[in-house]
From TrEMBL, chains A, B:
Residue ranges of domain HTH tetR-type in the record: 10-70
Keywords: DNA-binding
SUPFAM superfamilies: Homeodomain-like
PROSITE patterns, alphabetized: HTH_TETR_2
DNA-binding interval(s): 33-52
A Pfam family this chain is assigned to: TetR_C_8
InterPro entries per UniProt: Homeodomain-like_sf, HTH-type_Tx_Regulator, HTH_TetR, TetR_C_Firmicutes
Domain of life: Bacteria
Protein name: TetR/AcrR family transcriptional regulator
Length: 186, 186
DNA sequence: TCGCTTCCGAACATCGTGTTCGGTTACGGT
DNA sequence: ACCGTAACCGAACACGATGTTCGGAAGCGA
């Protein structure tokens, strides 16, 4: 029956995560060594390896928090059963990134990609059949979305989350609408 | 007045490039060491560093050949001044990838991304104004294209290049056509 | 054949990684 | 406040990868 997590553990892990994110933002993931993280966080070497297998594991743990947070917000959209605005999820993603600029700057798009791909495929399966392989459409739209999200983050949020969602809607919905129309007519 | 390149240089560089590509396909870029490349190519250590600064430089040189080749093929499309099929470039890219499966499997999409983004932006500037920032549209379409290309390569070319180009056309053209129509009407 | 370039390979210094272990500190529970 | 335990420290170590140096051997083009 584990009591509340030891305060030392909390502080150690938080310091390590914060240090890694800072350093990755400053130099990029590849140019950060474990030693750098240790110095920045002021944590002993052996302590690091008592908590994480390696740098990659620490990085993943940073992203896990973020992912859970985002998934929770996404989950709130589908509670009432009604389909709702199919582009609302995009708004949510951009709002989320805008609220966590540091970690979105640090995290590569590869982690995000897998998650968004899955959301996208489920969405396409339930909402409409486009007359072409679902995986192709899902990969296409997921790549576009993650790519433009990364661009937006890298360029320090040159447009508001709302504007980004609107523009993506306009770039995307035409293709979908046209396919639906053809499918209905043919 | 440099004569033809020394045969030894040609053979050395070719062996190194081939070895690196093979190993990257087998294990992924991060899991390949310089030593691995040396063993596979049967080249001495000092010889390697006489030709390339590090592993990254060798990898870049692999991609340069490919890029020049692709750019040449792309260049052949615009020689007659007529606009032609705006989706022909996409066919060319997929045909090219299909003809060089090994190196496309090895090369990450990041190198490709920059190139395709530039082509896309130029294309959008000359062809049509979409009523939203060109950079946004270019990044969106470039990301989608590179993403789906990577997916196609990773999954061992589950559709023909022609089919891929067609599907992308259908996923893309609706959005563009709709924007053009609105701009003309409004 | 001749002169020059390239290649070889062993040795070396340097750096990052991940582990071990005995000693110290700080936490949570009572 | 006290105590047992868990976490932290830091120095030392083994290991592997990187990139450089240099003298000698071999292959190239002319």
């Amino acid at each position: 029956m584990a009591t509340v997590e030891d305060r030392r553990v909390r502080r150690t892990r938080a310091a390590l995560r914060e240090a890694l994110v800072e350093l990755v933002v400053e130099r990029g993931y590849d140019r950060v060594t474990v030693r750098d993280v240790l110095d920045r966080a002021d944590i002993g070497r052996s302590t690091f390896y008592a908590h994480y297998r390696d740098k990659e594991a620490l990085f993943a743990s940073c992203f896990e928090d973020l992912r859970d947070d985002l998934k929770r917000e996404m989950g709130l959209l589908g509670t009432d059963g009604r389909p709702g605005d199919p582009f609302k999820p995009i708004s949510v993603i951009f709002e989320h990134a805008h609220r966590h600029p540091q970690i979105y700057r640090a995290v590569g798009t590869s982690h995000l990609h897998q998650m968004i791909f899955e959301v996208m495929r489920d969405h396409l399966c339930t909402h409409d059949d486009l007359g072409l392989p679902v995986d192709v459409a899902a990969e296409y739209h997921a790549s576009a979305l993650v790519g433009i999200l990364g661009w937006w983050v890298r360029n320090n949020f040159p447009h508001s989350p709302h504007d980004m969602a609107r523009m993506i809607r306009e770039l995307t919905v035409g293709g979908m609408a046209r396919r639906r129309h053809e499918a209905a007519a043919g």
